[in-house]
Prior knowledge:
- Keywords: Membrane, Transmembrane, Transmembrane helix.
- This protein is mainly α and 108 residues long.
- It is built from four helices and no strands.
- The two termini are 19 Å apart.
Amino acid sequence: MSLDKIIWAIGAVVAIIFAFVSFEMAGLILAILGLVCGFFIKGDHRRAVILAAIFLAVGGASALGAIPTVGTYLTAIFSNYGAVLSAASLMVIVMATAERLIPGMSSE
């Protein structure tokens, strides 16, 4: 398993854990994990990550909230994962901007 897949797996697991455990620095940890994850996104996956972040941020995370008993947990999980994806999207935007401004820098 490559380093980028391990980091994405850690981001997903931490998003799930923070859905059940309350922690004061949870938002900071999710943001840092998202930024690190975003650093490893290759050019062909960037658009998908940005679209997923937008979808979860505008309400997609709460789509399963109506399911009895587990809906609130699913909403919390996808909200947390949306935070990871949003931070990853910010890193993608910064990297894409740098690639356009710095000669020789590529997304490969």
